Amino acid sequence: MTTAPAGATGPGPDAHAAVTAIAREAKKASRVLATATRATKDAALHAMAEALVDASDRIVAGNAEDLERGRRGGMKESLLDRLALDPLRVAAIADALRELAALPDPVGEVVRGSTLPNGLRLRQVRVPMGVVGMIYEARPNVTVDAAGLALKSGNAVILRGGSAAASSNEVIVEVLGDALAAQGLPRTLVQSIDAFGRAGAVELMRARGLVDVLVPRGGADLIQTVVRESVVPVIETGVGNCHVFVDATADVAKAVPIVLNSKTQRTGVCNAAETLLVHRDVAATFLPAVLAALGEKDVTIHGDEATAAALPAGLRFEPATERDWETEYLSLDLAVKVVDSLDEALEHISRYSSGHTEVICTQDVTSVRRFTTELDSAALIVNASSRFTDGGQFGLGAEIGISTQKLHARGPMGLAELTTTTWIVEGDGQIRQ
Amino acid sequence: MTTAPAGATGPGPDAHAAVTAIAREAKKASRVLATATRATKDAALHAMAEALVDASDRIVAGNAEDLERGRRGGMKESLLDRLALDPLRVAAIADALRELAALPDPVGEVVRGSTLPNGLRLRQVRVPMGVVGMIYEARPNVTVDAAGLALKSGNAVILRGGSAAASSNEVIVEVLGDALAAQGLPRTLVQSIDAFGRAGAVELMRARGLVDVLVPRGGADLIQTVVRESVVPVIETGVGNCHVFVDATADVAKAVPIVLNSKTQRTGVCNAAETLLVHRDVAATFLPAVLAALGEKDVTIHGDEATAAALPAGLRFEPATERDWETEYLSLDLAVKVVDSLDEALEHISRYSSGHTEVICTQDVTSVRRFTTELDSAALIVNASSRFTDGGQFGLGAEIGISTQKLHARGPMGLAELTTTTWIVEGDGQIRQ
């Protein structure tokens, strides 16, 4: 185990001491980075990118071990594909670091400020969080993304990746650490606690005061476990039971492609649509058109009776149950329901949504106004695909996840969301009366 | 128990069902308020203020029960004073609601926005959180402040006050509810769970999904309990081990009043200074002056040897121990240490600070730059009193607390900090390629 983190004494009862030591090192390293200039950070990102490409063979070899273990363990082909690295994928991961270097530095941004009546000069300035913890699943590109986003935003990162990608991540973290050290930065800016297994993750969730924020990324089970167990502040990401509502006045020629794109452009992602609601007044023209188009994409429809009645021949159909309204399929399945009114649509969405993204297709200004003020989701989209809820699409640059909670960050989380602020007050002797 | 909350079945095993029912009512009420105009909310605030003044006699009578119980239980005079209400204090509490009405509405503010290359019009808009939970201690004015801040920011509030103020709070919540109902708003916008005691507080901390944020306000024990036990996102407030560092180049004529004001203007508050660090190069002139001034205010000095050597006759003095550097006295006590350099001061503060407020007195630009970039606290103040870290003083209006965590809010939390944002995206048929 050549890359065991500093202080590591193996999994088990010593995880507490080891993870605490790692977190202290991270905190110390974060202080160095907090005052680093953008030029220093961007140079480090380029060096990290180059080091990954240079180490492509070693990374692919480590990844081969993971794939072999995965195959022996009966991992599904789709998961094996997400885990797999080849030189082309390593190059793409490295490019993401170069793109981060091109983004503006969030640190130092003056968020607001004023001169107070007593002459105090007040400004609220963006500063790094300090230490960011990531608990995530199999994909090794997340290791690099998280390291890059943390570095650019001035933070140290502690990584707990899935065991399925352990060998890939071990090599990647070592390569990134070497690149940082060669740039004169602490290699402890990017540390892994994978060596401590589940016990390490538990310690990370308890390290309040040493770890400033924890971002879980993965399936609903992983996220809920972290939310429940962590005393470190958590940002909840990623579960999306997204809706598209096609209103009475919708432009059918636009609504059909919007539904198709929302459902089928990519299915395994949190901003894909899972339920389609159709206003009864437009159902006769819209439903046959959209169902035929969905059928061509092999989508299975889970519909109510009105949907069943409009179904073209040859489509896969199952009668919808309560469970369908709640389900984030992440597959070529779509729940479909005909509603009598905008009110019924709003009611349905309020009840079943996970608060991620909701779309309305309409030509009516009152419907737009009500849909965008009465619903309580991270993104409310009018006449466009749900797939636009994304940091890159919103022009925020890279994203570390999509927050579905309301505290701190909501929706796509980029560099700014990995910072906090400090109030700086400058006076010349003012005291309070 | 005329004001038992809807669904209340008494303390004990039914707290879960009762608090869940209360939280659901709050959520429903919050939806009504989310789309209310500023005019509606301000009218409600004025009506609430008027109702409190009209009910002054009943509130003072309820408060008398609390005071009587407190006296029998041996409550300290200083706490009895903070608990006590008379018509003048009720009027002051009501005025705070009128001041809230005068502040701009945070809801609807466009935080940022742009038109994307594909023509999508994107804006990030401030919206209410939904349901805010407050767990706090004895002072009944917090009941009204919390209700007012929540209402103005478009949120419903669930209150768990200290048992010491139970009778006062019971009357106040009933009066506020009547005022809301008379304005055509749900009285469930302001609900108390005091009837369920500790079991109710536990349920509130578990109501993730129904309660959007929990703000504990009170002593360190209360706050730490909530941080540890809550699965609802928490904003940690209020512990302040604040430092004043008097640098080698400090203007002594300004530094003495700054130290005095930071320590003695009010002692029981989180932005009072608890430790004074003095650069050795200025100690000979500064220390005798500041110690004499502190002595006149009856401050007890907990000092190192260099401080002891400079001590004027007649001052209360105790040799400082490690414990003194860690202590938030909240009293007329001050830890004092002479340091050799700015580096030693920064090191000391980084080690012992609770991350609230740090002050530097200096005439040197490099010291200002390092102090305001290398320290990691909510407020960094140059040449002014620590007592300025306050929502009112910063010009933010009323505050619900001072956050010492980094997520969501840091420093004084006003109306904007009780909101979240939604991304609204308007297109005309865009789909993702």
Automatic annotation (TrEMBL), chains A, B:
EC number, as in UniProt: 1.2.1.41
One GO term of the biological process aspect: L-proline biosynthetic process
Catalytic function, reaction form: L-glutamate 5-semialdehyde + phosphate + NADP(+) = L-glutamyl 5-phosphate + NADPH + H(+)
Stored Gene3D superfamilies: Aldehyde Dehydrogenase, Chain A, domain 1, Aldehyde Dehydrogenase, Chain A, domain 2
InterPro entries: Ald_DH/histidinol_DH, Ald_DH_C, Ald_DH_N, Aldehyde_DH_dom, G-glutamylP_reductase_CS, Glu-5-SA_DH, GPR_dom
CDD domains according to UniProt: ALDH_F18-19_ProA-GPR
Keywords: Amino-acid biosynthesis, Cytoplasm, NADP, Oxidoreductase, Proline biosynthesis
Sequence intervals crossing the membrane: none
Example GO molecular function: glutamate-5-semialdehyde dehydrogenase activity
Keyword match Amino-acid biosynthesis: yes
Protein origin, superkingdom: Bacteria
The Aldehyde dehydrogenase domain, residue ranges: 17-297
Protein's cellular compartments: Cytoplasm
Pathway(s): Amino-acid biosynthesis; L-proline biosynthesis; L-glutamate 5-semialdehyde from L-glutamate: step 2/2
Coiled-coil region list: none
A Gene Ontology term for the protein's cellular component: cytoplasm
Family: Belongs to the gamma-glutamyl phosphate reductase family.
Function as written in the Swiss-Prot or TrEMBL entry: Catalyzes the NADPH-dependent reduction of L-glutamate 5-phosphate into L-glutamate 5-semialdehyde and phosphate. The product spontaneously undergoes cyclization to form 1-pyrroline-5-carboxylate.
Protein name: Gamma-glutamyl phosphate reductase
Gene: proA
